Amino acid sequence: MTTTYLGTCLCAAVALEVEGGIEAIIHCHCSKCRKASGTAFATNGFVQSKGLRITRGEQSIRTYESAPGRRRHFCGICAAPLFSSNASDPSRLRLRLGILDSEISERPISHNFVSSRASWEDLDATLPRYEGHEPGR
User: Fold this and answer.
1) Alpha-carbon distance 39 to 61, whole Å?
2) How many CA atoms lie less than 13 Å away from 95 in the CB half-sphere?
3) What does the DSSP 8-state code read for residue 100?
4) Which of 10, 36, 58, 129 is the most buried (most CB within 10 A)?
5) Quick one: which of 104, 107, 105, 85 has its CA closest to 94?
6) Residues 115, 123: contact at Cβ < 8 Å?
7) Residue 93 Cα distances to 47, 69, 131, 134, angstroms
8) What are the strands, taking DSSP E only, across the chain?
9) Which residues contact 13 (CB under 8 A, 6 or more apart)?
10) Residue 18 in contact with residue 46, Cβ under 8 Å?
């Protein structure tokens, strides 16, 4: 049985389908991932290029070459990051897991580039957890 996941960007202009599962999911704390995501880290996983299919909005996808041969693909309308590609490994794409609408069975295996993490990110923090907004908001 083949695993299939569905995803959309923030504005839903771009929709995609991933077949074949997700490998090597990591939380990346490097400065490039922090800047690209606008958050403390980006959660990425590898998918097979042949398993990713854009089902809507391909014309809305824009790219940015962040390093020679490395391209970040994002929605040109809402700027949501979708995936990145590497010319030296065309068989795989690095999917930004935040775009997935489907529940996934795979789980992260590590936090990477932790020495580059945001100064306010405490990986071991025991912060309160809420189902909605924090009290008083």
Assistant:
1) 21
2) 33
3) B
4) 36
5) 85
6) no
7) 5, 13, 32, 36
8) 4-8, 15-19, 23-28, 42-48, 52-56, 61-67, 70-75, 81-86, 92-96, 110-112
9) 56, 57, 60, 75, 77, 78
10) no
Rounded to whole angstroms, the Cα distance separating 126 from 117 reads 18
Helix (H, G, I), strand (E, B) or coil at 127: coil
- Paired sense of beta strands 52-56 and 110-112, if any: unpaired
Nearest-angstrom CA–CA distance, 5 and 99:
10
Comparing C-alpha atoms, which of 73, 71, 68 is closest to residue 83?
73
Show the tokens assigned to 54.
């854009």
Neighbouring residues of 72: CB distance < 8 A, sequence distance ≥ 6? 36, 63, 64, 65, 66, 81, 84
pLDDT in tens, 70-118: 999 999 999 999 999 999 999 999 999 999 999 999 999 999 999 999 9
pLDDT score recorded for residue 129 = 76
